[in-house]
From TrEMBL:
The lineage of its organism: Bacteria, Pseudomonadati, Pseudomonadota, Alphaproteobacteria, Hyphomicrobiales. InterPro entries: AAA+_ATPase, ABC_transporter-like_ATP-bd, ABC_transporter-like_CS, P-loop_NTPase. It comes from Roseibium suaedae. PROSITE patterns: ABC_TRANSPORTER_1, ABC_TRANSPORTER_2. Residues 6-239 form the ABC transporter domain. This is Iron complex transport system ATP-binding protein. Belongs to the ABC transporter superfamily. SMART domains: AAA. GO terms for molecular function: ATP binding; ATP hydrolysis activity. Keywords: ATP-binding, Nucleotide-binding, Transport.
Length: 259
């Protein structure tokens, strides 16, 4: 695995000429960095992520991965470099956990070639990283929501991407698995773009944070500069209080409705 440099240059999108859901956004992410995309419901987070994993084509601007325009690469080339874990999960309920994770190797196989020993090792490692070895023969349809989420992360890891896109990766996960998955993905040599609803998690996990509000970039930069009471109020319409946790000294945000 290696990490990609991501450049988003003036990228905008809308389903028609008369409707713009994402106004031009620009940012640059160093290899191995983690970008958190936050914002209220409907702010445009999933739309931006869909552009980054090449599901939507930008109306304006371009997205570069190590200097290469995503839309000048083939879909297969992109799939070798970009993996996405989405809120919608597959409906391959009859497949086993191992079979679903092995699908992550598909972009790397040529033609009808069978998976090599190395492919199998990568799948086994992804299963073990997500603590799924004990259920690798179970049918996907029999798993709980949180277990399915871990399978989807394992499939993305098996893809050995240079850029990992996560849309609300902690949905369905209990607190322990939230922390474990996020800490694990942070140790991988991969660039990460993740949408998150939990601002404290975004502040502690991410190197850079982008706040979207009504399809526009409201603020972008290091969490300490971006997740401020002023921006949180503007983006979410809540009063935000910032305190320091003891003994770590880490900032912690709490929220209340305006009086
Ligand atoms: N193809 C489309 N046509 C019309 N409207 C769309 C389309 N796709 C998304 N939208 C709208 O664009 C807005 C942004 O959607 P998006 O899914 O990006 O928001 P989000 O920030 O991910 O929201 P959430 O936190 O609720 O998941 C929403 O109001 C959504 O209904």
């Amino acid at each position: 695995m290696s990490a990609a440099r991501l450049n988003i240059e003036e990228v905008s999108w809308g389903p028609s000429r008369s409707l713009t859901l994402l106004h031009p956004v620009s940012l640059a992410l160093e290899p191995g960095a983690c970008l958190g995309v936050v914002g209220a419901n409907g702010a445009g987070k999933s739309t931006l992520l869909r552009l980054i994993y090449r599901y939507l084509k930008p109306r304006t601007g371009r997205i570069l991965l190590d200097g290469d325009d995503l839309w000048k690469m083939s879909a297969r080339q992109t799939a070798r470099k970009v993996a996405a874990v989405l809120q919608e999960q597959p409906t391959d309920f009859a497949l086993s956990v191992r079979e679903i994770v092995a699908l992550g190797r598909r972009p790397h196989l040529s033609g009808l070639a069978s998976p090599s020993g190395r492919d199998q090792e990568i799948v086994a490692k992804a299963l073990s990283d997500m603590q799924l070895q004990g259920m690798s023969s179970r049918r996907f349809g029999t798993l709980s929501g949180g277990e399915r989420q871990r399978v989807m992360v394992a499939r993305a890891l098996a893809q050995e991407p240079t850029l990992l896109v996560l849309d609300e990766p902690t949905n369905h996960l209990d607190i322990r698995h939230q922390l474990e998955i996020l800490e694990l993905v942070r140790t991988l040599p991969v660039t990460i773009v993740t949408s998150l609803h939990d601002l404290n998690m975004a502040a502690s996990l991410c190197d850079q944070v982008l706040i979207l509000s009504s399809g526009r970039a409201l603020a972008y930069g290091p969490p300490a500069e971006v997740i401020t009471p002023h921006h949180v109020d503007a983006a979410f319409g809540v009063v935000c209080h910032r305190e320091e946790l003891q003994p770590s000294g880490r900032p912690h945000l709490t929220f209340s409705l305006p009086l």
